C-alpha cells in the first residue's frame, strides 16, 4: 500500500505519495483552506490519486504557536521560555516575571498567546510566586492551555488552583539553581499543540484532522534531517537545512559518524533545531526586514521598500508573485530570512557543526522549490557571502528539497518504515538534485 505523507502548513498543504519501498511516486500542494483544512487535504489527495493510501500527517498550521511565559525571575523565565520554545515550534510573544497583577494580566492577554508556560521556583524552593500566578491565571479569564513546569512541591496545589482550565503538568524546567531541563516541557508543549491548539485555531470543524496529525512539522523534519545525516555519514560532514515557510523559518543541523562500519547519527541536544517564529515569507514577513535592519544586512533605502512589500504580504498571506519584480522581492526576503535564521542557529550551537563544517546545505520551502536556477544562485551567493556563515558553508554542496522529502522521510521513519525513509532520502537528496558542489 502506498503512503501519503502530508504537511499542513500555515500557507500550503503539501503531499508526497511514496511507495512501500520508498520511491517517490508524486508530489502535490494546495493552499491550506481554513476554517476547514480538510478541503486542502482532499485536493492534494485527489491530485495524487491517493484515496486508498495510508495517511501520515504533520502540521504547523495557524500562523505559528504563540507562547507566553509566566515565571518568577525575569532572566531565568526568559531563558527557560526560549529554551523550551526553540524546538517546540513556538514563538515567545510575552514574558511576565514576579507576581501577576492586573496590568500584567492585561499585557499577557493583549499578546493573544496560544499557550502559557507557567514556571517558577527550584524543586523544594520558593512556592509563593508560582501559586500566586496560578491563582491569578485561574481567576482572570486566561482560557488558553497552560503547561505547568515549576517547583515540583507546589505542583499539586497549583493544579488544584487551576482546576477547570486545560493544564498539562510536567517536571520543573529549573530543578536546581543554574540547571535548566527544558526537554519534558518541550514535549508537553508539542502534545498541547496537537491536542488543543490545532483545534482551537479553528482549522477544522471536526476531530478527523486532529486524528490525522501525528506530530508537529518541525519534529518530522528533524527526524528526516537526522536520518539524512546518517545516510551521508561516510561522504560528508554535517547536514544543515534551512526551511523558509510562510510563518516561520526553521533551521536544522545534524552530524553523523561511521562507527564500526555502521552509520549512525551522533546524539545531539534538541537545540540543534531552531524555529524562528518572527521570520517567515507571509505571516512574519515584517520580522525579516526588522531583523535585517537590526543586523545591518540592508541599507535604509532597501529597508523602506522591503518594509512596504513585507507588510503587504503579511496582510495578504495568500499572495503569489505575478511579475518578475514581485518574484525578485520574494527571493530577497527568502535570502535574508535564511541568513538571519542560520546566524541565530549558529549562535545557539556556538558555531559548531562538527569537525568538517556543513557538508550539505539543503534549501527547503516553497519559495526555493519553485525558484529557477538564476534565483537560486542569488540565494546561494547571499548565504556564502555572509561573513558569519562563510566559514561554515565553505565546504558545503547545496541542494534544493524539490520533492519536499524531509518531513515525509521523518514521518515514514517514525511510523516504522525506516527502509522506505532511507531509500526516499537517498534517491531524492543524497545523490540527486545538487545545484552546486564546492
Report the count of strand segments: 18
C-alpha Rg (nearest Å)? 22 Å
Give the termini separation: 40 Å
Question: What is the SS-derived class?
Answer: alpha/beta
Poorly predicted runs are: 432-438
Within the largest sheet, what's the order of strands?
A: 15-12-11-16-17-18
Gross morphology:
globular
Strand content: 15-25%
**Count of DSSP helices?**
16
Report mean pLDDT, rounded to a whole number: 86
Number of domains: 3
Share of helix, binned: 40-55%
- Major sheet details: 6 strands, mixed
Fold and architecture overview:
- By secondary structure, the chain is α/β, with parallel strands linked by helices.
- It has 16 helices and 18 strands.
- The chain folds into three domains: 3-62 and 206-214, 2-Layer Sandwich (Nucleotidyltransferase, domain 5); 65-199, Rossmann fold, CATH 3.40.50.2300; 217-436, no CATH class.
- The chain has a six-stranded mixed β-sheet, sandwiched between helices. Strands 3-2-1-4-10 form a five-stranded mixed β-sheet, sandwiched between helices. A five-stranded parallel β-sheet has the order 6-5-7-8-9, with helices on both faces.
- Helix 9 runs antiparallel to helix 10 (300-315) and helix 11 (324-348) runs parallel beside helix 13 (373-385).
- Residues 432-438 have low confidence and may be disordered.
Features:
single chain; alpha/beta; six-stranded mixed β-sheet; five-stranded mixed β-sheet; 18 strands
Short description:
The protein is an alpha/beta fold and 438 residues long. It has helices at residues 38-47, 74-86, 102-110, 128-139, 155-161, 183-200, 208-212, 217-231, 285-294, 300-315, 324-348, 366-369, 373-385, 390-393, 406-414, 418-430, and strands spanning 3-8, 12-18, 24-31, 54-59, 65-71, 90-97, 115-118, 146-148, 167-169, 213-216, 238-244, 249-254, 256-259, 262-265, 273-276, 358-364, 397-400, 434-436.
Amino acid at each position: 500500500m502506498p503512503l501519503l505523507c502530508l504537511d499542513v502548513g500555515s500557507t500550503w498543504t503539501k503531499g508526497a505519495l511514496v511507495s512501500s519501498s520508498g520511491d517517490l511516486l508524486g508530489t502535490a500542494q494546495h493552499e491550506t483552506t481554513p476554517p476547514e483544512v480538510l478541503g486542502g487535504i482532499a485536493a492534494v489527495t485527489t491530485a495524487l490519486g491517493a484515496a486508498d493510501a495510508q495517511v501520515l500527517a504533520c502540521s504547523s498550521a495557524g500562523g505559528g504557536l504563540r507562547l507566553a511565559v509566566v515565571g518568577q525571575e525575569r532572566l531565568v523565565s526568559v531563558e527557560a521560555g526560549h529554551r523550551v520554545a526553540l524546538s517546540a515550534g513556538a514563538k515567545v510573544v510575552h514574558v511576565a516575571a514576579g507576581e501577576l497583577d492586573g496590568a500584567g494580566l492585561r499585557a499577557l492577554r493583549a499578546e493573544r498567546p496560544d499557550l502559557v508556560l507557567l514556571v517558577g521556583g527550584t524543586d523544594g524552593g520558593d512556592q509563593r510566586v508560582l501559586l500566586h500566578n496560578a491563582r491569578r491565571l485561574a481567576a482572570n479569564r486566561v482560557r488558553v492551555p497552560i503547561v505547568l513546569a515549576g517547583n515540583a512541591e507546589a505542583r499539586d496545589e497549583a493544579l488544584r488552583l487551576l482546576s477547570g482550565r486545560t493544564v498539562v503538568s510536567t517536571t520543573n524546567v529549573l530543578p536546581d539553581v543554574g540547571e535548566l531541563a527544558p526537554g519534558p516541557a518541550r514535549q508537553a508543549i508539542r502534545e498541547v499543540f496537537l491536542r488543543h491548539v490545532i483545534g482551537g485555531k479553528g482549522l477544522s470543524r471536526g476531530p478527523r484532522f486532529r486524528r490525522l496529525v501525528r506530530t508537529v512539522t518541525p519534529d518530522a523534519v528533524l527526524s528526516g534531517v537526522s536520518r539524512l545525516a546518517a545516510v551521508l555519514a561516510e561522504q560528508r560532514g554535517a547536514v544543515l537545512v534551512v526551511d523558509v515557510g510562510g510563518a516561520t523559518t526553521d533551521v536544522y543541523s545534524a552530524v553523523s559518524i561511521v562507527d564500526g562500519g555502521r552509520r549512525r547519527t551522533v546524539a545531539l541536544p534538541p537545540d540543534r533545531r531552531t524555529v524562528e517564529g518572527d521570520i517567515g515569507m507571509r505571516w512574519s514577513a515584517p520580522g525579516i526586514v526588522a531583523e535585517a535592519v537590526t543586523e545591518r544586512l540592508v541599507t535604509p533605502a532597501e529597508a523602506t521598500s522591503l518594509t512596504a512589500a513585507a507588510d503587504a504580504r503579511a496582510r495578504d498571506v495568500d499572495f503569489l508573485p505575478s511579475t518578475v519584480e514581485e518574484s525578485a522581492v520574494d527571493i530577497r526576503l527568502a535570502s535574508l530570512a535564511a541568513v538571519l535564521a542560520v546566524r541565530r542557529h549558529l549562535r545557539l550551537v556556538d558555531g559548531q557543526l562538527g569537525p568538517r563544517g556543513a557538508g550539505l546545505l539543503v534549501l527547503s520551502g516553497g519559495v526555493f522549490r519553485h525558484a529557477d536556477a538564476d534565483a537560486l544562485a542569488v540565494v546561494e551567493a547571499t548565504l556564502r557571502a555572509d561573513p558569519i556563515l562563510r566559514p561554515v558553508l565553505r565546504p558545503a554542496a547545496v541542494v534544493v528539497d524539490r520533492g519536499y522529502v524531509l518531513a515525509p522521510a521523518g514521518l515514514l521513519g517514525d511510523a516504522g518504515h525506516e527502509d522506505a525513509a532511507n531509500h526516499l532520502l537517498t534517491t531524492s537528496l543524497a545523490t540527486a538534485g545538487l545545484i552546486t558542489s564546492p
